[in-house]
Design goal:
Shape: globular
Number of helices: 9
Order of helices and strands: EEHHHHHHHHH
Strand order of the largest sheet: 1-2
Number of strands: 2
Length: 299
Amino acid sequence: MRSSNPVFSRRGFSRDNGYAGFNAAPQAGGPAAAQGGNPYAAGNPYAAGNPYAQGGPQNLSPHQVQQPYGAPPAGAVHTGRMTMDDVVMRTGMTLGTVIVGAAIGWIALSSPERLGLAIGCALVAMVLGFVQAFKRQASPPLILAYAAFEGLFLGGLSGALNERFSGAPMQAVLGTMAVFVGVLVAYKTRLIRVDQRFVRYVMAAAIGFVLLSMVNMLFAVFGGGDGLGFRSGGLGIIFGIVGVVLGACFLAMDFKQVEDGIAYGAPREESWLAAFGLTLTLVWIYLELLRLIAILRGD
C-alpha cells in the first residue's frame, strides 16, 4: 500500500506486502541488530545500503558502518536520519506557506470575478501535487510551490464563502485543528490502531468516496442543479461527515508513516514527504468541513 492520502499516491514508508511498520520493531541498527543480524531488514524500505541489513555491526569495519549516511564515528548520533523535529519543522514551513498564500488569496482572489483565478490556482496545485507524488525523491521547491498555489485557492474560496456565510472559514479552521488534536491523542493512546486491515478499509472507502464525488460533479455539470445531491441537503450533510471521518483516518495513517520512518531510520529528506502528506490531509479536512458548514448554514 503506497499511499495514505485520498488524493495522491506518494512514496511513503511502504513495502511490497503491506503498510510498513505495522507492529513495528526498533529502528534498524538498534539493539536488535547488534545481537546478530537485523530481523526487521526484510520489511525495512531503507534496508538497501544499510550496513545492518545483512548482519550486525560486529561484521563491519568502522568505515563501513558510517558510510551510508556519511555519519560520524561509531557511537555518535546519525544526523542524516529523519527525526520528529525535522518533520515538525518541514510541516511548519509547508503549512506556513499555505497560510501566507491563503492570506494573499483572501485579499486578491475572493471577489466573484476573480474566483476563476482561484480555481486556476487549484488546478496548478493539483498538477504540482501529482508531479511530486510520482517523483522518487522529495523536492522541497516543488512542495512549497504546491503549498503556495493551494493557499491561494483556499484563500480565494474561503473569502468568497465568508461573504455569504460569515465566520464559516474560521469555524472550518477551528474544526480542522480539533480533528488534528483529537486524532493525535487517539493515535498516541492507541485508541486508533493503524494496521493493514485499517488501511484496506480506509482506502476502499476513499476510492468509493472520490468516485461518487466525481460522478456527482459530472451530473451537476451536464445536468445542472446539485447533480445527484451528494453535496446538498441531508445527503450532503452525511457525505460531508463521511469526508471528515475519512480525513481523520488518513491523518492517523500519516502519523503512522512518520512513526515508521523515524523507527526505520529514514533519510532526513523523507521529512519533506511527511510534511507534504500531512498538508494534503489537513487541506482535505478543511475543505470537507468548509463544505459541511456551508450546507448546514445554507438557506
